[in-house]
Design a protein that fits this description.
The complex is a heterodimer of chains A (251) and B (310).
Chain A: E1 2-6, E2 9-11, E3 33-35, H1 37-51, E4 57-64, H2 68-78, E5 82-87, H3 96-110, E6 114-118, H4 129-136, E7 141-151, E8 154-161, E9 164-171, E10 174-178, H5 190-198, E11 201-204, E12 217-223, E13 232-234, H6 237-247
Parallel strand pairs in A: 1-4, 1-6, 4-5, 5-11, 6-10, 7-10
Antiparallel strand pairs in A: 2-3, 7-8, 8-9
Chain B: E1 2-6, H1 17-27, E2 32-38, H2 42-50, E3 54-61, H3 70-80, E4 84-90, H4 93-105, E5 110-114, E6 116-119, E7 122-127, E8 132-138, E9 143-147, E10 163-167, E11 176-183, E12 196-200, H5 207-221, E13 224-227, H6 229-233, E14 254-258, H7 264-270, E15 275-280, E16 293-296, H8 299-309
Parallel strand pairs in B: 1-2, 1-4, 2-3, 3-10, 4-9, 5-9, 12-13, 12-14, 14-15, 15-16
Antiparallel strand pairs in B: 6-7, 7-8
Helix pairs in contact in B: 3-4, 5-8
Classes of the chains: A alpha/beta (251), B alpha/beta (310).
Keywords (chain A): Electron transport, Transport
Pfam family, one (chain A): ETF
Family (chain A): Belongs to the ETF beta-subunit/FixA family.
Chain lengths: 251, 310
């Protein structure tokens, strides 16, 4: 069976973003971009399933600007077999519902047995796309996966829930979103980066898939979160306890 | 039109997050209704009817809803969604699982982790791990939201007297099945609802040290225990203790961070706490930039000293 792995190009997780002074967004010009960390875990899981012989082909997909090609090359260096870029204009605010519709069109076209996505992107922090794709394609979903086993036409998935873990069984085809503890993504090696350059990449437009990607949500303003007042350093435990009791009055 | 809160419950009782979501629903304008989709969930429905400000409780009871599978719960919400202008879910693991499924079926965009209701169609939500706040406006007919519970006060759990109306439960989708669960047992207050949280990071060194050093402090303060991702990944603490962008978002009165450097992803989960105390031996640790009180000391001596001083 085929696996489709959507990946997103986002601001690197170590970068502390700054809000633009005109309040229109965050400044991402000249900022380091990388593959969304949860998506790396998704690619790794797909490649591991291929190495186990459960999966025959891993297809990486990204929706966005031309530079998403780099993200797809990274996915192929980890082990994806080919890539599809759904290219959209740089000034378009591409939102989860639109991405889910693009992915639904690709699911119809490629007929994968599994779609493995990250649980959320670290830029918009939405945590929606996988669930929306599952709804649109009418597939079962297992979100926040920390363990995936494929057997007898079913996917047995352990999920991280509030308070612990839950295991569910899904009929295949299915949609899975990855949590942090699913696996440790491998480092890409130089020979694999070179090989990835030769792997096929197809470029499509939303119109080719018949999808309207018009944003539904308008961002009116982006602002800095309220700043915390400057704190103080205390000299010892006794002072700390005194401050907590008398000044902050929290204990 | 009214707003519908999709309650989180364990069939017998309501989860606390539902109360915060009711407050957010009231801010959207109109009546507030609560959906209890469950199995043998009369207890939860009774509890929902007592919440101040709730005018109607819809109770769907069926075996298909026993395990709260996303496919079935989403179908249950969709069965009545057309009556509502707003559908609100708590932004918990359960709410996040179901809400986008409902939104996509309605062909509407969803607003995640809403921290403020500005008006019936305009909301605030954090992006980039809480480093920016976006004010967003939805053009869709139905607004589907998940509500960050720490952004809203809990509605009073008593004083209401809503009517309970039974509705038909949906059939099982047949596409997914519950296999089992492992719920961590804890006598401590629930992390997301605790007034005081004592949290440990990688510097704890081991699971034994984590318990040995932090448990007495948590016991003394009646606090919940939390952890950074580093501590969880190293196996010092269970993963449902993780505080941060990818774990729980908390806003207690007092947050005590022990041996936590204060990475962006951790701060995203706790920087709305009222008072933050950092105990760290590295004077350059970023946690000191958000801490109200910083103590530059070895936690293995400072924490036991703190326990004695309390």
């Amino acid at each position: 069976m085929k696996v489709l792995v959507p990946v997103k190009r986002v601001v690197d997780y170590n970068v502390k973003v700054r809000v633009k002074s005109d309040g229109t967004g965050v400044d991402i010009a000249n900022v380091k971009m990388s593959m969304n960390p949860f998506d790396e875990i998704a690619v790794e899981e797909a490649v591991r399933l291929k190495e186990k012989g459960v999966v025959t082909e891993v297809i990486a997909v990204s929706c966005g600007v031309t530079q998403c090609q780099e993200t797809l090359r990274t996915a192929m260096a980890i082990g994806a077999d080919r890539a599809i870029l759904v290219e959209t204009p740089a000034d378009l605010d591409l939102q989860p519902l639109a991405v889910a519709k693009l992915l639904k069109a690709l699911v119809d076209k490629e007929q994968p047995g599994l779609v493995i996505l990250g649980k959320q992107a670290i830029d918009d922090d939405c945590n929606q796309t996988g669930q929306m794709l599952a709804a649109l394609a009418d597939l079962p979903q297992a979100t926040f996966a920390s363990k995936v086993e494929i057997a007898d036409g079913k996917a047995k998935v352990t999920r991280e829930i509030d308070g612990g873990l839950e295991t569910i069984s899904l009929s295949i085809p299915a949609v899975i979103t990855t949590d942090l503890r699913l696996n440790e993504p491998r480092y890409v090696t130089l020979p694999n980066i070179m090989k990835a350059k030769k792997k096929p990449m197809e470029t499509l437009k939303p119109a080719d898939l018949g999808v309207d990607v018009t944003p539904r949500i308008k961002t009116l303003k982006v602002s800095e979160p309220p700043k915390r007042g400057a704190g103080v350093k205390v000299a010892d435990v006794a002072t700390l306890v005194a401050k907590l009791k008398n000044e902050a009055k929290v204990i | 039109m009214a707003a519908l809160v999709i309650a989180e419950h364990d069939h017998g009782t309501l989860k606390g997050a539902t109360l915060n979501t009711v407050t957010a629903a009231a801010a959207c304008g109109g009546d507030v209704h609560v959906l209890i989709a469950g199995h043998n969930a009369a207890g939860a429905a009774q509890a929902a009817a007592q919440i101040a400000g709730v005018t109607k409780v819809l109770h769907a009871d069926g075996a298909s809803l026993a395990e709260q599978l996303a496919e079935n719960v989403a179908a249950q919400v969709l069965a009545i969604a057309s009556n509502y202008a707003h559908l609100l879910f708590p932004a918990t693991a359960h709410g996040k699982n179901v809400a986008p499924r409902v939104a996509a079926k309605l062909d509407v965009a969803q607003l995640s982790d809403v921290t403020k209701v500005v008006s019936a169609d305009t909301f605030e939500r954090p992006i980039y791990a809480g480093n920016a706040i976006a004010t967003v406006q939805s053009a869709d007919a139905t607004k589907v939201l998940t509500v960050r519970t720490t952004g809203f006060d809990a509605a009073a759990a008593s004083g209401g007297s809503a009517a309970i109306e039974s509705i038909a439960a949906v059939a099982d989708s047949g596409k997914s099945a519950f296999v089992g669960s492992e719920i961590a047992k804890s006598d401590r207050p629930e992390l997301t609802a605790a007034k005081i949280i004592v949290s440990g990071g990688r510097a704890m060194g081991s699971s034994d040290k984590f318990n040995e050093v932090l448990t007495p402090l948590a016991d003394k303060l009646g606090a919940a225990l939390g952890a950074s991702r580093a501590a969880v990944d190293a196996g010092y603490a269970p993963n449902d203790w993780q505080v941060g962008q990818t774990g729980k978002i908390v806003a207690p009165t007092l947050y005590i961070a022990c041996g936590i450097s204060g990475a962006i992803q951790h701060l995203a989960g706790m920087k709305d706490s009222k008072v933050i105390v950092a105990i760290n031996k590295d004077p350059e640790a970023p946690i000191f930039s958000v801490a109200d009180y910083g103590l530059e000391a070895d936690l293995f001596t400072a924490v036991p000293e703190l326990v004695n001083a309390l």
